[in-house]
Design brief:
By secondary structure, this protein is mainly alpha-helical. Helices cover about 70% and strands about 5% of the residues. Strands 1-2 form a two-stranded antiparallel sheet. Helix 3 packs across helix 4. The longest helix is centred in the last third of the chain and has 23 residues. It is elongated. It starts with a helix and ends with a helix. The mean pLDDT is about 90.
Length: about 90
């Protein structure tokens, strides 16, 4: 799954958080645990081993649009680098 596809998932596990945010395993676990605390306060929680994307965004202080923009910019960088390396 690409980072952009992960961004559209309603729920994430620790590994998906790590991949989506490009953070270390330790940071992903910390983010997961904080999001898990937020989700545990909900009156109904359908899943216990994954957390809501909304909670992950809240914990990290990011919003959907900002993260999408960062992902698209990161994906564009390798293409730009390849263009400069091959050109004259």
């Amino acid at each position: 799954m690409t980072r952009e596809e992960l961004l559209n998932e309603p729920y994430l596990n620790k590994k998906q958080i790590e991949r989506l945010l490009k953070v270390s395993r330790e940071d992903a676990v910390r983010i997961y645990e904080q999001a898990d605390q937020l989700d545990s306060q909900l009156p109904f929680r359908p899943y216990t081993k994954i957390v809501r994307m909304e909670s992950v965004l809240k914990v990290t202080g990011k919003n959907y649009d900002l993260l999408l923009k960062q992902i698209k910019n990161a994906e564009a960088l390798p293409k730009q680098s390849a263009r400069y390396e091959g050109g004259s």
